[in-house]
From TrEMBL:
The organism of origin for this protein: Flavobacterium araucananum
A GO molecular function held by the record: phosphopantetheine binding
Gene Ontology CC: cytoplasm
GO biological process: amino acid activation for nonribosomal peptide biosynthetic process; secondary metabolite biosynthetic process
UniProt xrefs under Pfam families: AMP-binding_C
InterPro entries: AMP-bd_C, AMP-bd_C_sf
Protein name, UniProt field: AMP-binding enzyme C-terminal domain-containing protein
Gene3D superfamilies named among the record's database cross-references: 3.30.300.30, Luciferase, Domain 3
Domain AMP-binding enzyme C-terminal: 73-152
Signal sequence interval, chain numbering: none
């Protein structure tokens, strides 16, 4: 529309990723120059009464091994563990024997004064509140999260995890005996 920016200043890659051709543009729209859309990442649906209903963020919902996963649910569970002040969960691709697979990676920042949390305890707590397919395949402890110039979490700057550890084989306890 008329109020759409031309793009991000000096950020051509981000501009081409977020400002896309408008597949819904009519001939009239094209004559007015309304030929692009901005991908906000918001999910909405059009209701019968003409209103839009906000459903959430597209970038927070992923599909891994046939399961639709809300990354925010995992982040909430991770942040709920005593000693963890902040968390972020991303999907990262890694090489495996069967080819490239997607894996969940949990990044977290410890509370001030907290020395260390054992990864096995974190995984055990996550396994108690999340289904097995939502437990991250790798955890990365951070001193602090990188921020963009706007003060938002810079997810692109988070380091790649080390998938070589034993966490790949982790399975949450399913019975009292296994605990």
């Amino acid at each position: 529309g008329a109020g759409l920016a031309r793009g991000y200043l000096n950020l051509l890659d981000l501009t081409s990723e977020r400002f896309i051709s408008n597949p819904f543009a009519t001939e009239q729209d094209l004559l007015k120059g309304y030929d692009r859309l901005y991908k906000t990442g918001d999910l909405v649906r059009w209701l019968a009464d003409g209103n839009l209903e906000y459903l959430g963020r597209n970038d927070d919902q992923v599909k891994i091994r046939g399961y639709r996963i809300e990354l925010g649910e995992i982040e909430h569970a991770l942040s709920g563990i005593e000693g963890i002040s902040q968390s972020c969960v991303l999907v990262k691709e890694r090489e495996s024997l069967s080819g490239v697979v997607k894996s969940l990676v949990g990044y977290y920042v410890l509370d001030q004064g907290e020395v260390v949390l054992e990864e096995s305890l974190i995984l055990e707590e996550l396994g108690a509140v999340l289904p097995e397919y939502m437990v991250p395949g790798a955890l990365v402890v951070m001193d602090s999260f990188p921020l963009t110039i706007n003060g938002k979490l810079d997810k692109r700057s988070l380091p790649d995890p080390d998938f070589s550890g034993s966490m790949e084989a982790y399975m949450a306890p399913r019975t009292e005996l296994e605990i």
